[in-house]
# Entry
Amino acid sequence: MKDKIRKEKEKGKWVGLYFLGLVIILYLFIFFLNFENAYNSLKSSWDILVKLIPVLFLVVFLMGLVNYLLKPKAISKHLGKGSGARGWVFSVLAGIISHGPIYVWYPLLKELRKQGMRQGLAAVFLYNRAIKIPLLPVLVYYFGLAFAVILLAFTIIASLIEGKIMEMLEH
Amino acid sequence: MNNLKHNDDKKQKNLLFSFYKSFKSFGASVPVLIGVILLLGLFRVNVSPRLISSIFRGDFFGDVLIGSVFGSISAGNPLTSYIIGAELLKEGISLFAVTAFLVAWVTVGIIQLPAEAAILGKQFALKRNLISFVLAILVSLATVTILMMIR
# Structure
């Protein structure tokens, strides 16, 4: 299982670099065809990056805090079967505060499912990973506070609906 | 006393390690982020609003559906989806379509589907992604409708 995660991580790393490589090749191509176009595009990219830098610092800081305050093992402890309403609430919260790439959490959920965790709770957990606390300032920056608050509320409601549907389909 | 000092040292180390880890995990998504920003630069300079509108602006529900499909097949840091979403808004794409795009980006994972199916089961992964796709559209409709009502 650990090998699988490592492979996914490695794959993710290379996919990112390949992607960047392809974009750079595309730029080189345009550079030779139309210098002005490539220059304007680079300048435009630079403007986007400069606007984004302060927010990126905030994101790294919040990610560090989340890493420090919460450990995956502690979260997994409270997601067991027979947790009732508390289990649903905890699945929502755990999904929101969990951190890192989504595939890191698949093996943990598989373990919990083996121990009798309800399918719906796994779905609720995965759905709530849509809510990223460290990225909230960016969401607010681009779309406004009201939008962010309403979207988060409906994301939580949708996660519960998804969990319930998954359980209904299971039986 | 020594124990207390030891615990403090440990905590400080943990804190530093947490920030190191967050920096590292963020660093891993930097190539994609730079790639996306570079593509956006090209996008801004070369793609006219008219071109985008030809892909996106069919009808209201068509737009929302296209947004949700785009979000589902795209993957990566949600930050990237926010940047693209904001750009789409600037180009005149409806907030309904952009919201469906944002929600599908983080709840539907076509790219991760093989991994999810391999570890959590094919049935689970397929059902979950399908329901999430439909919900992305519903969440978008609900969110933007409420937003319009309170404004």
In short: The first helix of chain B runs from residue 2 to 28. Chain B has two domains: 1-46, 48-151. The helical segments of chain B are 2-28, 30-46, 49-56, 60-73, 78-90, 95-107, 113-120, 122-150.
